[in-house]
Amino acid sequence: MNDFGRFVYEPARVYIFIDMTHKLFFIIDMTHILFFIILIVSPILYSIAGLGIAIVNDFKSIEGDRELGLQSLPVAFGADKAKWICAGSITLTQLGVAGYLASINEPIYAGILLALILPQIFFQATLLIPDPIENDVKFQASAQPFLVFGILATALCVGHHDFSA
Amino acid sequence: MKFLVFATALSAATAFSPAVQTASRTSTLGMLPSSKLQQPGSFYPFPQQKQHQRESLLTLEQAGKTEEQKRLNAEATDGSAGVRQLLGLKGASGSDNIWKIRLQLTKPVTWIPLVWGVMCGAAASGNYHWMWNPLDENDRNVMLGLEDAAKGFVAMILAGPLLTGFTQTINDWYDREIDAINEPYRPIPSGAISEGQVIAQIWVLLLAGLATAYGLDVWAGHDTPTVLYLSIFGSFISYIYSAPPLKLKQNGWAGNYALGASYISLPWWCGQAVFGDLDRPVYFIL
For residue range A110-128, what is the model confidence (pLDDT) as tens digits? Predict the structure, then answer.
C-alpha cells in the first residue's frame, strides 16, 4: 500500500494501479511490450534470415521472372526496395538472436555471433546494397560463411547453456 | 510509417560509406510507386501464367534467350564437366548413365546446408557425445561416441540425399514445362530420363526418407516420433512449394520464407530431435 493505493504487478505486461478514489487505470510497461514483441517475432528469426538469403538469388532473374509473371520480391518491389528487405531480414534477425543469447546470460557467445555479423554487414554495404544484380553471387560467397558459422555458434551456445538454471 | 522505416534504413546506409550515399539517393526514386511495377492483382498470377509461358515461347526474343541459356550451360572446359553433372551444377556434361542422371536430379550441392543444419541441431541438443572430447574428460566414451556419430550420419543422409533429393526431384518434375522453355537441357525436359522413372524416384526417396525418419525415432527411443513428424511436415512444405495449386515458389514472400526456413530450421530441429528433445527454447531463434 502506498499513495497510489494497491499496486499489482501482472506478468501480462500491464501494471494495474488502483488509486485512493478506486478509479482503476492501467499503465502499460513499454519494456514488457518490447519483450512481448521479441517473443512473438523471434520464433522465426533464423528462418527470416533464410528468407533474405533466398531473395538474393532472385535479383539475377528479374527480367525473366517478370516476363513469366513470377512475383519474386525484386519483381514485386523493385531491386532497390528488395535489396533493403534482403539486407534487413538477414542482419536484424541475427542481431535479434545475438540479443537473445546476451539476454540468457551468454555474453561470450553473443559476442562471437556479433563478431560474425559485422563482416556480413560490411559485405552488404560494399556488395549487396551498391549493386545487388551484379554482386549477388559474390555477396553470397563472401557473407554466407559468416552466417553459417553464426548458426553453429548459436547452436553450440544453446547446447552448452543450462536452461534449467 | 513505411516511409519512416525506409528513411531510417536509408540514413543507416549513408553511414556506411560516402560511395553508398549516391546509390541510396537514386534508390529513393525507385521506391516511388511506379505504374509498371504495381499491376493490380499481379501477386497471384496462377491463372495467367500458362498463357504467359506460351506467348513467350513464340517470341523471337525468347528463342534468342534459349540460345544464350544453352551457351551459358555449355560444357565446362576445365575438365570439371563430369563432376559438375554429379553435383547438379551448370556446365555439366551429358551422360546416358541413368544413375548419374538420377543423382543430378537430386542436386547434391544443395545437400550441404542441410547437413550443416543437422550438425548444428546435434550441437544444440547439448547431448551429442564425442568419441574423445578434448575439452571434457567425462565425455570420452568411445562406444557412445561411435553410436552418436552413426546416428548423426543417418540423420544427415535423411536430410541430404533422401529428403532434399526428394525436394529437388519433385521441383524439377513440376517445373518440367517451364524448364522446357528456359532450360531445355535439364534431365526431364531433354528426355534423358523417362517420366515414369522420375515419378518412381520421387516415391522411393520420399518413402525411404520417412522410413529412415521413423527408424531414427526408434533408435533415439522417442515416445512421440518427432523426426517422422518433422519429415512429413518438411516433405509437405516441399510439395506445396513446387506443386500446383499453391506453388509457393511463385510468391516472393511465401516461397522464399519456405525455402529459408526449410534450409535452416528443419535440419536443426531434425538433428536436435535425434539427440535430445525439442524442449530447448530453440523456437526463439529458428
Answer: 999 999 999 999 999 999 9
A92 pLDDT higher than 70: yes
At A22, give phi and psi (nearest 5°).
Answer: 60, 25
- Note whether ipTM > 0.85 here: no
Give pLDDT tens digits for A47-60.
889 999 999 989 98
Cα–Cα distance measured from residue A104 to residue A106, given in angstroms and rounded to the nearest whole number: 6
A15 domain residue, yes or no: no
**Residue of higher predicted confidence among A88 and B91:** A88
Asked, for residue A16, whether it belongs to a domain, the answer is no
- Asked if B256 and A58 come within 8 Å (Cβ–Cβ), the reply is yes
Nearest to A51 among B62, B260, B285 (CB): B260
Asked if B80 and B211 sit in the same domain, the reply is no
Q: Could you list the residue range(s) of the whole structural domain that residue B68 is in?
A: 64-94
Rounded to the nearest angstrom, the minimum Cα separation between A3 and chain B is: 39
A43 with B255: Cβ contact below 8 A: no
Verify that B88 and B130 share a domain, yes or no.
no
Chain A residue numbers touching B116 (CB-CB < 8 A): 148, 151-152
Q: What is the rounded end-to-end Cα distance, in angstroms, of chain B?
A: 28
Pair (B217, B79) in one structural domain? no
B113 in the same domain as B72: no
Among residues 103-122 of chain A, which lie with CB inside 8 Å of chain B?
none
Q: How many domains does the structure of chain B reveal?
A: 2
pTM above 0.95, yes or no: no
Taken in order B38, B40, B44, B46, the sign of the CA dihedral is: negative
Q: By residue range, what is the domain housing residue A85?
A: 46-160
* A68 part of a folded domain: yes
Q: Which residues contact B253 (CB under 8 A, 6 or more apart)?
A: A51, A73
**Cβ atoms B239, B170 nearer than 8 A:** yes
B216-259 pLDDT tens trace:
999 999 988 989 999 999 999 999 999 988 889 888 888 988 99
Which of A61, A71, A116, A156 would you mutate first to test chain B, the one with the most B CBs within 10 A?
A71
* Residue A31: predicted pLDDT: 55
Question: Which residues of chain A neighbour B34 with C-beta distances below 8 Å?
Answer: 78
**C-alpha cell at position B86:** 554429379
